[in-house]
């Protein structure tokens, strides 16, 4: 038969999952083998990734998948959030627990970097937007505060690739994930040697870049034995979760589409053929991340569901527990347009009392403050909608492209209110789904690598045929338009 199965390990900032993806008769099905929390782990005054625990969860998932398929999967691939990395010592082992990108050590590092090379030049050399947690700035902070650990470092491996390394022993840097670090020249797709030299970062510590879809190795004999599987092929898919998510956008061939990969972050952008690096994309801070099969993601990181996740965490710590559906429901029942905040406000980036931060912004802009979780949730939804429109309007202006549909993919498609509000404020159709876009993209890149699927185009068609895509038509556009125009920033 033409049926083949693949294992996708998909790690998000809040949760991770091991999925079994099966493709048969041009249809993709996903089955969840194991799901677990990821998230920041406090260690002293830092926050880190508990890599050992996460690795254990991943192994549980792989073992379940091996059992389920009678060990017949074709390959396995890993994807994760960007920018973070593990430091590998000369003995091949992790030197310490990797830092979480929201750790405070990166504060001020963009300014430090710009003393060495101007921001405009860094952008020219990379095409990547300035986020204080980019790998470049994390390394700079390490050089300043703990040079000794860098002395001991043999290899720096980005997160998804780190788990692949732990299973197969091969150190590599998958291109899409490497691109997030702001050290790759997006015009060539290679580490930018000149930039690295300028920042005195030893290029030898960075494993060679491999393209998405490369078979990088096999699960080691020991690991295979432990997991009850054969020495499965390890594929570098798009190791960056957003690259996988966008690979799985069920866009119609000739439609003019934008995407919103909606999860902890809202990544809103366009797929383009070449990086767009100029004064405008620099001053407006659009990024050019590497995508699969020669594509570039011109996009912006919008703060996203993090605003809700972090508010929820605060309420929970203060004895009030709300589920995500409850929070959505509360927002839905609350009058819209009561207040709006700039989701890009820098303090939102860090963990901490989110409702208070939101209130500070509301107050500054002359809106009424509130203690009510319902109102806070509403403000977040309305504010995200505003950010989406601002971003899409600028993208269209910068590229001269007009879009007629926004594809929302990822966990955020479960927030039906947010999807509807996006349609309303944009005055455009929203097509929402699949929820598991990232895992789908991961599997599809493996399927292209194995020859079962021919191209990215065919992969996208397959997604459209395999999952429900919910259409939201814009409503109340006059009111939303008036609201958008009233926003004071
Ligand atoms: C989304 C994501 C974004 C990246 C952010 C931090 O999960 O990968 O693309 O900017 O996490 O790594």
UniProtKB/TrEMBL annotation:
The cross-references to SUPFAM superfamilies, in alphabetical order and at most eight, read: Actin-like ATPase domain (SSF53067)
Q: Which InterPro entries match?
A: ATPase_NBD (IPR043129), Carb_kinase_FGGY (IPR000577), FGGY_C (IPR018485), FGGY_Carb_Kinase (IPR050406), FGGY_N (IPR018484), Rhamnulokinase (IPR013449)
Alphabetized GO MF terms: ATP binding; rhamnulokinase activity
Example GO BP? rhamnose catabolic process
**What EC number(s) does the entry state?**
2.7.1.5
Where's the Carbohydrate kinase FGGY C-terminal domain?
258-449
- CDD domains per UniProt: ASKHA_NBD_FGGY_RhaB-like (cd07771)
Q: Which UniProt keywords apply?
A: ATP-binding, Kinase, Nucleotide-binding, Rhamnose metabolism, Transferase
Q: Which residues form the Carbohydrate kinase FGGY N-terminal domain?
A: 6-246
The reply on keyword Calcium is no
Reply yes or no: does the keyword Kinase apply: yes
Which protein family is named in the record? Belongs to the FGGY kinase family.
Name assigned to this protein? Rhamnulokinase
